[in-house]
Amino acid sequence: MAELKPQSAVSKMLNAAWVRPFLFLVFIVVAWDLAIRLFKIPAYQIPSPADVVAVLRTEWPELLRQSWPTTYATVCGFLLSALFGIPVAMLIAGSKTVESYVYPLLVFSQSVPKIAIAPLFVVWFGFGIIPKVISAFLLGFFPVVVSAVQGFKSVDPDMVDLARAMQGSRFQVFRAVNLPHALPAIFSGLKVSVTLAVVGAVVGEFVGSNSGIGYVMQRSIGTFDLPTMFAALVILALLGVVLFWIVDRIEKLIIPWHVSQREDVIFAS
Q1: Which part of the chain is the ABC transmembrane type-1 domain (predicted)?
Q2: How far apart are CA 212 and CA 199, in angstroms?
Q3: CATH 1.20.1250.20: does it fit domain 52-153+187-254?
């Protein structure tokens, strides 16, 4: 049997998790610049990548300072969505009665545009951090509940019966069987939730705030300062990627045994 040849340094670098997204990002930026040059798009419609990079370089301290309120509101709203979403999912998955009352209302609540009710939060709670946290919470809550309900309902009943037959208490059965089997689905919902929480925080900043990346974008739109607005979009994208990566790292630490954490996934042919 022939021995496998070790990978070269170039091959290892190309197989790194961050290289391919970075190369694709470079491709998008190059295509963006070429489209502006070929179609002669004016700067007041779409700024060039060079203008956006120049704003990021010169305004970086201000953008970094304005990103802190957005990050704080996003993290608080996300933590609240996890804190309330997982227990609600447990109640829905454990009781048909609770599911029949609560689940339809949750689905109905998602049809209401958050941008339409966000001004109410400003009226009720003022122009502080609370409206932004509530907006982030409302957008991040539903994915956590739906994924967690699916995870708790997918637990094998035979495993639960086996644990009960071994004289396990309800808490022991939950800790040893229900929760581990539901964790992969819960983390899937958390990863969706943390990115939507960024959107919710920005929505809250749009309707009533004097700080944050959303405020920077709104001010830039009012003055037609498109390079600054695109630079703010870059900051928001980076914020979402970093928060998603943090949740993904936590998932790898908590459930390293799950099939989703394998390096190679083999599909049957």
Answers
A1: 67-247
A2: 12
A3: no
